[in-house]
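Aim 2, interim progress: modelling of the adenosine-5'-triphosphate-bound target.
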Amino acid sequence: MTDPAAAPAGPAAAGGLEVVGLSVRITGRTILDDVTFTVPPGRRVGVIGASGSGKSMTSLALMGLEPTGATVSGSIRLDGTELIGMPERERARLRGAGIGMVFQEPGTALDPLRRVGAQIAEPLRLHRGLDRRAARAAATALAADVGLPDPESMLRQYPHQLSGGQRQRICIAMAMAGEPAYLVADEPTTALDVTTEARILELFERVSAGMLFVTHDLAVLSRIADTAVVLDGGRVVEQGSVASLLAAPQHPATVALVEAARATARRTGGAS
Ligand SMILES: Nc1ncnc2c1ncn2[C@@H]1O[C@H](COP(=O)(O)OP(=O)(O)OP(=O)(O)O)[C@@H](O)[C@H]1O
Ligand SMILES: [Mg+2]
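Predicted structure of the complex, ligand included:
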C-alpha cells in the first residue's frame, strides 16, 4: 500500500494536500478522530457537517493553527512534504504561500491596528516579491475582484471601520494575495448577501488553487465542489462525489443534512 510504484497515475501521483489519520485531542477529549481525505492539486473539495462536527478544527489543523495544548497526530502532506512535526518557523513560512486560509471569523485574521490595504499588500510583497507601488496596485485590484466598492478608499480603512461582510471580503483578498497552491476556506461567504456571495463564488471558481471549502449550504457545495467529505462528531462518515452524496446519502448524518436543506428549500420556495 505504501509502495509508490503501485500508486495509481493521475492527480494523486502529482501530490495534493493529503490528510491521513488526522486526530486532534484537547485536554483528553478527541475532537478529530482519524480524518482522511485528499485535495488533489487544482481541485475543490467540500466539507460539510453539523455545527460542532469538526469542520473548523480540520481547517485550523491543516494550517498548524490548532489551539495551544492540542495534540495533533497523523499525517498532513503538502505536495509530498509532511507538515506535522515541521518546525513552527518553516510551517509559518508555508502559511500564505503554500496554504492560504479564509477563517470563519473574519476578525481573527485581521490586525485591528493596521489599515486593511497594508494587510493585503503584505503577502503580495512577501510571497510575490512586488515592490510597494506594485503591491498597492495589486491590492486595489484584489479589493475590486472581491466586489468592494471604491477599493482605494476602502483599503485606507482600519478593520473596525468596515462591515462584517466587507471584512470577510478583505480576508478573502488576503488569502488569495499570496497565490497559494492550496486554499482552506471556512464558510467564507456566510456574512455576505446573495449577490455578493455569487460574485465571490465565481472568484473561487476562477482560482486555480486546490481548495478545501467548508460550507453548510448544499447549493453552494454543489456549485463549488465535485467531491466532499462529511464530518460527524470529528470523524469522516462519508465521502465521495457531491452528486451522489446529495442524490443518495448513505450515513444518517448526511441524510439529515440533505433533508434539512430540502425542507429549507421547500419553505423558501427555492429549488433543490
Ligand atoms: N479551542 C478549543 N478548545 C477546546 N475545544 C474546542 C476548541 N475549539 C473547538 N472545540 C471543540 O471542537 C469541536 C469541533 O468544533 P469546530 O469549531 O471544528 O466545529 P464546526 O464543525 O466548525 O462547527 P460550526 O459549523 O459551528 O462552525 C466542538 O465540539 C468544539 O466544542
Ligand atoms: Mg466552524
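The longest strand covers residues 29-39. Residues 55-56, 104, 186 surround magnesium ion (ligand 2) (CB under 6 Å).
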